[in-house]
Amino acid sequence: MPESIEKPLACWKGSDRYGDRILDTLTIIFRTGGCEWNRCRMCSYRHERYYDRSPGELQGLVRRQMQWVNENHSLDGIDMIKIFTSGSFFDPKEVDPETREYIGKMLAGKIVVVETRPEYIQEPALSGFIRSIDTGQWKTPLYVAVGLETTDDAIREKSINKGFSTEDFWNAADTAREAGVGIKAYLLMKPLFLTEDEALIDMENSIADIYRRVDMISMNPCTVQKNTELERYWKQGAYRPPYLWSVLSVLLSSPVHILCDPVGGGHQRGPHNCRKCDRDIVSAIREYSLSADTKILQEAMDTTCECKKEWEFVLQHEMPYSMPLTR
Ligand code: SF4
Ligand SMILES: [Zn+2]
After folding, report:
1. Are the CB atoms for 305 and 244 separated by under 8 Å?
2. Which of 156, 171, 189, 315 has a CA 20 to 30 Å removed from the CA of 200?
3. Under DSSP, is residue 10 helix (H, G, I), strand (E, B) or coil?
4. pLDDT band for position 146 (50/70/90)?
5. pLDDT tens-digit profile of 156-202?
6. How far is it, in rounded angstroms, from Cα 68 to Cα 70?
7. Ligand 1 within 6 A of 253 CB?
8. Cα 251–181–220 angle (5° rounding)?
């Protein structure tokens, strides 16, 4: 019997800003055997995995998801493919080199952006994958996207439990550069245990620290995903996602264009203000992310809504209650 086609966790078309252009994109989220690290406080993607499968079965399942993409989405006119997995694309236990090559060949001629933890950014995996996708059409056919989240090691450790340092990130970035691979950094706005003001300053500092050394920055305002430690705190009233005013403020003060899609924007689990002004601000942020037009942000920031005073009050008066530094 022929093996059945396997549907990826998600797959959708969209568009993204790339340099001065707007490219049509396809985003694919492959289900894999899962993230080896598997313990970040806000992450639910790690639960979206296959359980109890042999390495051989897992590779077959990933390939069949790529077949599904091929059969259900025309790649004509798509210039950029963004790949996510239940963890890291370059973890050979999640996606082995032959499966990577199989996927790469189907995506030849596109710009491919793959998410991975820094410890898997290694040779010869990078050049092997570039060989399968590169047709000479793009100067940089491959980007590695890393969830750096913040440049503050203490926040990354205590508030996120990410398990790598900023130095690890830069070492991986050097390896990528030497292989001709571009670097995209994801930043996480307002992980656990930070006040609104601390979160805002953390993003401003992080952007200032990295913008000269990475090719793209995408800032994710934190959302409360199901079955996470973050959700437990949120249910107890010990966490609130960032205000959209804070997101606007960080984007406005940034020296470079920042990609930002406020997922869950306007909902209690996502970045939100007061409900009345949320929808307009979310669409302004999305429009800016595509157009890089800061006037759109400024106009959104200048709108008057009662909740802006509340946000300003929170910035001034919210107190950090801290975690113990030692056990
Ligand atoms: S490294 Fe990524 S996939 Fe793994 S637990 Fe952390 S956020 Fe989730
Ligand atoms: Zn409002």
Report:
1. no
2. 171
3. strand
4. very high
5. 999 999 999 999 999 999 999 999 999 999 999 999 999 999 999 99
6. 5
7. no
8. 25
Dist. CA 280 → ligand 2 center (Å) = 10
Q: Which amino acid is at 254?
A: S
42 Cα nearest atom in ligand 1: 7
- How far is Cα 120 from Cα 83, in angstroms, rounded to an integer? 15
- Which DSSP letter does residue 242 get? P
Q: Which ligand sits closest to the CA of 305?
A: 2
The alpha carbon of 283 and the centre of ligand 2 are apart by a number of angstroms equal to 14
Number of the ligand 1 atom closest to the C-alpha atom of 161: 6
Alpha carbon of 223 to ligand 2 centroid (Å): 19
pLDDT band at residue 3 under the 50/70/90 scheme? low
Residue 194 near residue 155 (C-beta atoms within 8 A): yes
The CATH architecture that domain 10-317 belongs to is Alpha-Beta Barrel (3.20)
How far apart CA 305 and CA 311 sit, in angstroms, is: 10
Q: Report how far apart the first and last C-alpha atoms of the chain are (Å, whole number).
A: 56
Mean pLDDT over all residues of the chain? 96
Q: Tell me, what DSSP letter sits at residue 36?
A: S
As given in the structure block, the two tokens for residue 87 are 């963890």
Q: What integer pLDDT is reported at residue 321 of this predicted model?
A: 80
Neighbours of 89 (CB within 10 A): 25
* Mean pLDDT on 103-118: 98
pLDDT-based confidence at residue 59 (cuts at 50, 70, 90)? very high
Whole-Å CA distances, 139 to 88, 114, 176: 24, 17, 14
User: Which ligand lies nearest the alpha carbon of 118?
Assistant: 1
Nearest CA to ligand 1 atom 6: 40
Contact 250, 288 (CB under 8 A): no
pLDDT above 80: residue 213: yes
**Residue 97: in which H helix or E strand, if any?**
helix 97-106
Domain residue ranges of the chain, discontinuous segments joined by +: 10-317
What pLDDT score does 216 carry? Answer: 98
